Amino acid sequence: MAGRDLRALFSTNEVALETSEAFTNREAQWAAVADALTEHLQTLTRPGIDPEDLEAPRRNLLVFHGVGGIGKSTLSRALEAALTDTERRPAQWGAPSWPRQARILPIRIDLARSTGVDFERIVLTLRLALAQLGRPLPAFDLALRRYWAHNHPGEPLEEYLRRTGLGAAVNKALPEQIQAAAGEVAAALLLPGFVGSALGQVTNTVVTALRERRQTVKALAGCIRLADLLEAEPDVDALSYYPHLLAWEIARLPAKKAVLPVVLLDTFEDTGDRTHRDLERLLQRMVWLMPNAFFVVTGRSRLQWADPALHGQLDYTGPAAWPALNTPTYSPTTAGSAGGRQMLVGDFSLEDSDDYLARRLTRNQQPLIGPEVRAVIAARSHGLPLYLDLSVMRFLELRRQGATPEPADFDADFPALIARTLRDLTPDERHVLRSVALLDAFDIPLATAAAGLDREAPVLRLIERPFVQDDPAALWPHHLHALIRSTVRTADDQADDRWSPTDWQHAAERAFTALGSQANGADQNRRLLVGCLRQGLRLARDFRLALGWLADAAWHYVSDSVWEPIAPPSPSTAVAGTSLRTAADALVELLSALARRQHEHREHTVARLTTVIDAALLPAALQEMAVYYRAKADRDLGHGAASHAGMQQVADGGGRLAAAARRGLAHSARLAGDFPAALAAAQHLGWEGRQNRVLGDIYWIQGDMNRATDAYTAARADAEQHQLSGEHAHAQTYLAFATAFSSPEAAEHEIALAEQYLSGLALRANRLMLSIAALLRDAGTNDLGERARTLRADIHAAGLDAALAATLELVMAFHHAARGSDAGVNASIVRLRELTGNGDYTYYIDIAHFMAGLPLPESASPARWLEGDQVTRRRWHALVTARRNHLGLA
């Protein structure tokens, strides 16, 4: 309901101030339906009502809108039940005021994407419901018969209905009625072979008879637009005009068969968004063309059909077309010809919150609350109407005190929200509410443990409350309304049973322990592990808890190199640049830096990890983690000495990352060109040190692609055996790269497989490496310069110049050598000299000479090749020759 906001009215001396207030409850919504249907039935009994009138304004519509999970679908189903059978009407809903003899036919259609409903199924659903009348609807049925034959050749309608389960109870009645309609027309036109006749011939015969107004088709001749619809191309656009034929048929039903279809369109938000309105346009056309039916729409936002700005996107727009939609909120006091037909169910969307505030207080029909203030209030409200109401009162209070309300005045919570939230809860439910306010999301066991209860009943009661929202697909299916949660946590709680700081601390410890119990069983459930880490890190940070189970969870997190975003939001009291104070602060920063390095420049990663290391707040094992990953970032940046020192420190420590650090030292030897030393170090790495992958890295540099691909294949098998998706993708990426040197056809498959493995993983370096592999696959073909320039920019932006830029230039040298372009090879060599100036990868310059058959310069690298430089030269030159032969360039 909506009416005068007396509280606001009596808060100011401004008599010119106009106020309105909105309330929401299910009884009011039923009353809205009852009133609207009663009015519509009365309208249909008036003389002069013509369903073929396409110009009269439409009021055959009622809209319920609100945020997801507020109960709109439940309301839609309850309305369907109440309209179907009065015995199923909730007890608190009053009896409707329409005449008892009125026959209401509810037709509920769920428009959710998950149901796969398209416009064709919507129209069929309408016709199937009307099949309950037990009679053909010839005008519509003829058009539908033509549409079906054109769009579903060879598929009987009955078979389609059976297969899809659409209208199972009447799926035989509709085809029979359509057949009967065809038979009636056949008899009237003396066409005994009508049903079996060619569809085009039949259509032409019917259209000719209609145009000539023959007495034989007198029953159909009254439908003045039937001939036009039968002549139109029978596509979906034409189908969207067929509801006009349904309206005509409904209007000519005999009194004993008269019926009012009430179409309940649920989940309307899934018809598209406010940019893409294709399905919405068809649905709006259906509503407009059936003025003697009534439509109840439920969706997340109010319909904008009365907005003239939508002209061109929709067929019928503006306040003159939809006077009932021009008023934003339904009100029984204005439910007549000038009243509104849109009603809020629960929360507002952001845009509707702004619209609500703009309309709530007005002077001379202009919003009293400015756009900047409205934006702050709407954002903080999270769509909760109560918050909007309280903000309006605060706005008036500030003005009464002589102040000009500013956006900063509304960056606060209202303690009144707590009182109104708690007042209907039992003491146990209040206890659970405060406990779960510490959690981003929860399930019943987690909430029970966090509250320290030995029974679930209070939790089960709490999750039925409207401020607890559900997401069945989420890791934990329940979460508090965002505004309620923040208010319970931060506002000045004046309730009799309010918690002390110690109470909150104990609750945080219980919630932390409960999350740890779930995390300890998450070895094979990474999604659960990450979820527990996110929530546990925030609790440990905000309440200064000991790390406990977080240490082991952190190790599980880094073990697979997937790098999901992990850092919880900063607390509202946090100050930018605040130094680390606790081990939890340091662990949050450590894991955040590791995850964000896939999206940030490696220099930033090094700086963040250095801050963690210098703080010295972490236990030794986690401190080692920070040192190791800083060493990796240093290597990517070309800081060879710093990287080697960090890896040596971790290897000497003998901890969990010692094997990985030894791999890092092997990489250092490889980068320096000491391949025998790198190979010797690799022989003792084992699975923990990713031995096979390191061997592949060594062998491809020697030009030995067979041994390299064998090693990478073994590395991939190792990762698959240990169920590590990040390592699996890494090995596959490098397998694709090595394969691309020797076999472009095989590389096509390996690259596609790597793309599949990388899907959903935040592995930026591997994605860039895969782009290099794709470039290598195409080496020797057309000009690859533009692709290479784009890749160079992406690599530089990631801070991976030292790790990947030189590899990219080596691939370009291979491309130019295959094309026989000495100038191109020399240009790549010049860039390689610039990129390898720190001493790493200098042997790439030698390889470029090997590829092109050029003699080594006097400044050749000090590389120690495994089988000597001549064997290596022959292998690389053979790869180039094979590519030239493959492309017909020899």
Note the main attributes of this structure.
40 helices; Rossmann fold; 3-stranded antiparallel sheet; 890 residues; mainly alpha
Q: What's the Cα radius of gyration?
A: 36 Å
Task: Tell me the structural class.
Answer: mainly alpha
Fraction of residues in β-strands: 5-15%
Number of helices: 40
Provide the domain count: 5
Low-pLDDT parts are: 21-25, 194-198, 331-338, 572-577
Give your account of this protein's structure.
This protein is mainly alpha-helical. It has 5 domains: 2-21 and 349-412, no CATH class; 25-128 and 259-345, Rossmann fold (3-Layer(aba) Sandwich); 134-240, no CATH class; 427-652, no CATH class; 698-887, Serine Threonine Protein Phosphatase 5, Tetratricopeptide repeat. 55% of the residues lie in helices and 5% in strands. It contains 40 helices and 12 strands. The strands form 4 sheets. The chain has a 5-stranded parallel beta sheet, with helices on both faces. Strands 2-9-10 form a 3-stranded antiparallel beta sheet. The protein has a two-stranded antiparallel ribbon with strand order 1-3. A hairpin with a 7-residue loop joins strand 11 and strand 12 (478-480). Helix 27 (620-636) runs parallel beside helix 29 and helix 33 (725-742) packs parallel to helix 35.
